Amino acid sequence: MPRNWIITGASSGFGRALAEAVLAQGDRAVVTARSEASLADLRSAYADRVAPVVLDLTQPERITAAAREAENAFGQVDVLVNNAGYGVIGAVEEMSPAEYRPMMEANFFGTVEFTRALLPAMRARGRGHIVNISSVAGMAARPGYGFYAASKFALEGMSEALAGELRPLGIHVTLIEPGPFRTEFTGRSLQLAEQVIGDYAATAGASRETVRNRHGSQPGDPARAAAVILEAVASEDPPLRLPLGSYAYGRIREKLAGVAADLDAWEPRAGAATEFSGD
Questions:
Q1: Residue 153 — left, alpha, or beta (φ > 0 → left; ψ -120 to 50 → alpha)?
Q2: What is the C-alpha separation between 18 and 5, in angstroms, rounded?
């Protein structure tokens, strides 16, 4: 049976690649963007199987109404893909609240509220799949990505708990953790801190330069990623976490090895040794 999808941030990148893959296999999709004009080509190509909805996750007052529009478009939601968001790069000290708070609103708070608005109908049907587009930065933060990583760490923590809450109700949750892909994340969807502090040149500054130099040459192909995500959604036992790309697998394994090393080094002093002895 064809599925009904909601895909946020479908104007470009992963959202657009997923929308095209979903529609190509005969499913129906509600696609959201901040501008309906950016979705016109999808509507023209797929007519009655596409429903565009204007959604800006930094505008809380719009989220509930957009969720109702999306839900009513095709009668039910089988798969929700929370993809909309963007990144900011700069050292923690360099960033201002005016730069990082809207990003947190879009990447985390707005995503949470859009999901919450759609959960009652999913629970009533006793089935569904929520796919949250995170990042390798949601597992392993690098200098310069502090606030972006914070937004994705928050998304991962919420999603992990949500998965445990929804699994008994027949609803799956999957986190997608991409490494570098050829999307607009390092282009028009990226903001760089206005303030530059020289002391961070070798850390956050290096991250800033890397992003400037690699846009358009990242190894990841969004179309191939979309195919893997479709495979995971179709699986009878979908993963909670799905890293994408060899960089993501290597970086996450490096992070886990570091965590294990800290555990092994400090458990004798900070594990049972810090607990009440009962004496």
A1: alpha
A2: 10
270 by Cβ neighbours in 10 Å (0-12 / 13-18 / 19+) ranks as exposed
More confident position, 211 or 114: 114
Active site positions, annotated: 134, 148, 152
What fold does the segment set 4-247 form as a domain?
Answer: Rossmann fold (3.40.50)
Q: Which residue type is seen at 206?
A: A
d(CA 213, CA 195) in angstroms, rounded, equals: 20
| Residue 279 predicted with pLDDT over 90 | no
> In the numeric block, which tokens belong to residue 149?
């990583």
* Gap between the Cα atoms of 89 and 191, Å rounded: 6
Structure confidence by residue, pLDDT tens digits, 14-56: 899 999 999 999 999 999 998 889 999 998 899 889 999 999 9
Polymer length in residues for the chain: 279
> Which pLDDT score is estimated for 229?
96
**Judging by beta carbons within 10 Å of its beta carbon (0-12, 13-18, 19+), is residue 183 exposed, middle or buried?**
buried
Q: How many CB atoms lie within 10 A of CB 12?
A: 17
Question: Taking a C-beta distance cutoff of 8 angstroms, is the pair 31, 84 a contact?
Answer: no
pTM of the model: 0.92
Reported as a single tens digit per residue, the pLDDT across 214-246 is: 765 676 788 999 999 999 999 999 999 999 999
Q: Is the pLDDT of residue 187 over 70?
A: no
The token pair that represents 213 in the structure block: 């130099």
The domain ranges of the chain are 4-247
Cβ–Cβ under 8 Å, residues 249 and 136? no
Helices vs. strands in the chain: H and E counts, helices first = 9, 9
